[in-house]
Amino acid sequence: MGRLYEAESGPGKAGKVPGPRGPSAHFPRLAAELLLAGFPLGLADGDAGGLPLRWVAGVLTALQARLRGRCRLLVLSVLGARGVGKSTLLNTMFGLQFATGGGRARGDVLQLVEVAEPFSRDLGWDFLLAIDSEGLAGRGRAAPEGGEEGDVDERDVARATLAVGLSHVVLVSVTDAADVPPAVPRAFLRMERLGHRPSCQLLLHQGPGSPAAAPWDPAEGAGPLGQRSVAAAGLEKRGPGRTPGQAAFLPTRGHTWHIPGLWHGTPPMAPASLAYSEAALEVKRCLIENLRNGPPDPDRSISQLIERVLSASRSIHTTAACSKNRAARVRVGKGNKPVTYEEAHPPHYIAHRKGWLSHHTSNLDGEGGVAERTVEDVFLRKFMLGTFPGCLADQLVLKRRANQLLICALLLQRLPPHKLYFLVGYSEALLSAFYKCPVRLHLQTLPAKVVYKYI
């Protein structure tokens, strides 16, 4: 529904939700009804890679019209690497129905939970909107060739920015403080430019039998979180004066939690751990207590949330106007990388030039022995590669003239002349006896490989 709504929505003015056109005009109202009924709703498609901001704003607008007076929301999202138990933690804390299992979450999924009337007056919000996001790429992923160590998939940064921009509380779920995905601090820095700084809670999941780690101290600026903050500030061009302790995403003292493993032993026969449920309940209790005792937040209405989504569209970088949609990584060449003829020219140019070679032979009808010649070509190339190891400077050119077979090759000057002449005579005699036809080698020696072009 989100894709159809985005496709049929016209270009809207800055700061306004564009009016839909066509039969998809009622889609946001249907999505709002599903949310109020307790069904999870896909916010962004992880397979398509796009972030439908108009669809998000339309659903929130329909939700505001449906709720009328009770429109105070507390938005809570969870970010982290893949397979650390983000969906399981949200289901345990709030009784939700997110899909669990390694890699089950695709894109961003949200679910609405209504708060009872007596508690809503005490807490200050009427509904809890939980956002379960797809796992982000962690530090273990190798950087692209020629890329920097801090290179991150821009789609991960965009999805994390959307989740942080919508949220009042962000749970960062990792197995170790050093495993925080690089997209998380960049998302916090982007939203900090707009004046939005949600509360950050760091959840450290411990495996079965692993020792409990010491609580993280915010004063440890040289720790892994501080280093990740400095790297993110450099990528976001925030200036050299930023210290690790000033990072927007660093949790303050008392906002770091250690979550034990879910299972006692190896699933599926292992029983569930009671300590996991107790830790999740403690995190939920302290989180609600901090929000209740904290300063009042006037930014919990749906209208303010819609404005934040529209203002965050520039920071999310999902359109070509922001110069962030790119099909590939482009790097400026230094003129020291050799490329071949096939790498230097586009495929249609090569096909046009090489098509001249088959201009006259393409009219042959019923030509026999094509498969046999293919096998012969493969054998001859392997034979020359083994006879002259490390000496071939380029691909072989095989020619057949009547009953004569010609092998043309470029060789590097790595063999003494007497050995080269011996191998030439040996190859011609052996191949002539094997194929029962004259075989001649036309060789040219070069001091080094001939580079077609440098980039």
TrEMBL record:
<keyword id="KW-0689">Ribosomal protein</keyword>
<dbReference type="InterPro" id="IPR027417">
    <property type="entry name" value="P-loop_NTPase"/>
</dbReference>
<comment type="similarity">
    <text>Belongs to the universal ribosomal protein uS3 family.</text>
</comment>
<keyword id="KW-0687">Ribonucleoprotein</keyword>
<dbReference type="InterPro" id="IPR026146">
    <property type="entry name" value="Ribosomal_uS3m"/>
</dbReference>
<dbReference type="Pfam" id="PF14955">
    <property type="entry name" value="MRP-S24"/>
</dbReference>
<protein>
    <submittedName>
        <fullName>Mitochondrial ribosomal protein S24</fullName>
    </submittedName>
</protein>
<keyword id="KW-0496">Mitochondrion</keyword>
<feature type="region of interest" description="Disordered">
    <location>
        <begin position="1"/>
        <end position="22"/>
    </location>
</feature>
<feature type="domain" description="VLIG-type G">
    <location>
        <begin position="70"/>
        <end position="310"/>
    </location>
</feature>
<dbReference type="GO" id="GO:0005525">
    <property type="term" value="F:GTP binding"/>
</dbReference>
<dbReference type="GO" id="GO:0005739">
    <property type="term" value="C:mitochondrion"/>
</dbReference>
<dbReference type="Pfam" id="PF25683">
    <property type="entry name" value="URGCP_GTPase"/>
</dbReference>
<dbReference type="GO" id="GO:1990904">
    <property type="term" value="C:ribonucleoprotein complex"/>
</dbReference>
<keyword id="KW-0809">Transit peptide</keyword>
<dbReference type="GO" id="GO:0005840">
    <property type="term" value="C:ribosome"/>
</dbReference>
<dbReference type="InterPro" id="IPR030383">
    <property type="entry name" value="G_VLIG_dom"/>
</dbReference>
